[in-house]
Amino acid sequence: MTPPSGKRPHRGGRPGRSGPARPAGTNQPDRSNRQAKPRPERRPDPRRAAHQLVSSVIDEQKTLADLLGRTGPLGRFDPADRARAQRLATETLRHLGRLDTLLAEHLSHMPPLPVLITLRIATYELATSEAAHGVVNSAVTHVAAMPRHNRLKGMTNAVLRKVAATAPSRWPDLPPSPLPDWLRAPLVMAWGEAGVVAMEAAHARGAPLDLTPRDPSAAADMAQRLEARVLPTGNLRIDRPVQVSRLEGFDAGEWWVQDAAAAIPARLLGARPGEKVLDMCAAPGGKTLQLAAAGAEVTALDISAARTERITENLARTGLGAEIVVADALDFDRTGWDAILLDAPCSATGTIRRHPDLPHAQDGSRIGDLIALQSGLIDHALSLLRPGGRLVFCTCSLIPDEGEVQVAEALARHPGLSTDPADLDLPGLEADWITQEGGLRLRPDHWAGLGGMDGFYIAMLRKPA
Ligand SMILES: C[S@@+](CC[C@H](N)C(=O)[O-])C[C@H]1O[C@@H](n2cnc3c(N)ncnc32)[C@H](O)[C@@H]1O
């Protein structure tokens, strides 16, 4: 059988809300402890929390970022359990296809989604060498506590014992999980089957930690202190797991976390000291920090008040300055900017290495609206630029309609608007990343030997003087 990747094959029983265990086979409320003393609160269980997270992504199309706030299911967890639950959910979603391959060999029927998710999480743990006994027992106990599905606890036990015997040896050779069809089909059209397979392999490998130094000339010294590598673009890369806030230089604001690809748009813009620069969709502010560090007079604008708080925090930590405006960019009417950076809202499909939940929390239905918003933002940004000004448009998307096509159409709509290949002659940028209309296509499978990069599309547009 082919297990679902899978939307709502089950009936009833909200995933992850199985509640306290009742004796199997009864729907009567348990009145036996009516007079009993209040039970001590049970320690939150990271596996149950991971189940709740995965269910909410697959079944309710919520992103892990939405779910990981203080009021989310990990709110009561200590940092270690929180990290474990988050890792289990993230890695289960990253490897869904591989896990389903292992499970399919032992399942004759499609289990209901809550049980399938328990099986997937346990299979991930078994495949990556957790103690089999504890994993299987915990999964069986979890299924036994699902009022509608507890009859499947025997099946859960049998399947996972078989999985435990083979999964660790098979795991390294299983092909990467395929992207869901809604995304895979357009990407195969754009980049070919081999290109998409290479991207899927990059998604399976995950992402290292990249930092942007506040002072680019200090990169080599900082790399030595942080045991990091300096990348061809000047970012630092750390391959081991670390706690970011404990790294040297965090409190002093010597650097900020930013994928190497995400750091390229502000470099391309090349803000000069004293220039008036608008960062048009700015939060949480990685690019605002780069522009401010270059000495520009920066206005950071974003529609989200909550997200702009992150810009304020980041500016305070790094000791950099920018004006912050909370507004819809389409209503913002201050003109005369020397340069504008437009990091437009998009499908974020270039960041799947870091956010493997994204393809499962979407179905592509919002992309049409995003494309319309992006082209409206490009036109509005051009109307705010001074004659001769520069606009960098970028999206962290792998879909050409959110990148190459946007810029080709903007060039057609605005006579005199141009791209210049000389603008792309920067350290670390490779000639075959340059696109026909004069932008840059970055993909997760680029720099494969260095640990990859996020997918991005970036173009610098010059307004006629
Ligand atoms: C890709 S994120 C920006 C990331 C940011 N540039 C950085 O480097 O940290 C896109 C941002 O656009 C904002 N946004 C969406 N629609 C907007 C609009 N109409 N006007 C202004 N900001 C908008 C979102 O709140 C989100 O913070």
Care to give the gist of this entry?
The protein has 465 residues and is α/β, with parallel strands linked by helices. 38% of the residues lie in helices and 12% in strands. The chain has helices spanning 46-60, 64-67, 79-94, 96-104, 113-127, 132-144, 153-170, 181-205, 219-226, 264-269, 286-293, 305-318, 367-384, 404-413; strands at residues 209-213, 229-230, 236-238, 255-257, 276-279, 297-302, 323-326, 337-343, 385-395, 440-442, 456-462.
List unreliable stretches of 5+ residues.
1-34
Our count of helices gives 14
Can you write the helix and strand succession as a string? Answer: HHHHHHHHEHEEEHEHEHEEHEHEE
What best-fitting shape do the alpha-carbon axes yield?
Answer: globular
Mean pLDDT: 91
CATH superfamily of the largest domain: Vaccinia Virus protein VP39
Relative helix content: 25-40%
Rounded to an integer, what's the Rg over CA atoms? 25 Å
Examine the secondary-structure arrangement and name the CATH architecture of the largest domain: 3-Layer(aba) Sandwich
Largest sheet, if any? 7 strands, mixed
- State the domain count: 2
Bound ions, cofactors and other small molecules, one mention each: S-adenosylmethionine
The CATH class of the largest domain: Alpha Beta
Number of β-strand runs: 11
The portion of residues forming beta strands comes to 5-15%
Could you please say which CATH topology of the largest domain applies here? Rossmann fold
- The spatial strand order of the largest sheet comes to 7-6-5-8-9-11-10
The computed structural class is alpha/beta
